[in-house]
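QA checklist item 7 of 12: single-chain prediction sanity check.
[x] sequence parsed
[x] length recorded as 263
[x] structure emitted
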Amino acid sequence: MAHLTKDKGDLAVAKAIAHLLEHGIHVCLPLSEHLPFDLIAVMPDMVTLKRVQVKYRTLENGFVPFSFRSNYYNSKRIYTVKVDLSQLDAYATFCPETDTVYYLRVDEIPTDAVALRMRVTPPKNGQKKGIWLAQNYLDPYRIANSAYKIECSPRSLTEPIQLAIAHVEIDLLQQGWYTCSPQRWAAPFDLIAVSADMQRLLRVRVGFRQANATTFTDVYALYQPDDHSVRYLSAEHVPTADQYVGGEAHPAMSPLLEVALAG
């Protein structure tokens, strides 16, 4: 039996992805369903990464409602708590009546707000103060300004690389990191690693024994098929002249991501 709430949420995410792609903004989707955001928006500079929560909201008396509370429940009761906005950068809200996605940054939300409403049609009296006009929140670049666009050569994901990515995801999860994967685009990195507190987003380039060096990464993760291990190296420790990253050229790799980042 279909789950209506989930179906609406999935539709909203699909609408948001399509709208972002139409504007040259790519997305990465989390492996876990329990993160506070639904996707990571990758701006055209391939550097700026933003955590986006997607919502499906129907019109209420000409307004698109936003709520900053979430519900969870156990066997006894339902609990309502305020959303931890420090774990998000923006909302993307799809309204079926207008067939439109509206973008609201977290830094625009009043500190004490638990909800707000965007008005679809301007007031007849011309009032602007205290009015959230939906027409002002249509541009997906409201998520983050991107000063330039990077053209990246598509990367061929061979079977060994795909196997390596799967093992790196397992290893990151076991270390307490979450992962997000590129959705419908050939990214210059293979994963985004998300820290447990949701505050750090790292672009990860995965290699099978070794990886080509690239400027579009924060961390290299090399899978070693002989013992099924993964080794990490911060991109900061790779000289710009190096064409590849591997154990022979970079012996200081660590099996722990946090250690690799610390150097």
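[x] summary fact logged: The domain at 159-262 is CATH 3.40.1350.10 (Trna Endonuclease; Chain: A, domain 1).
[ ] second reviewer sign-off
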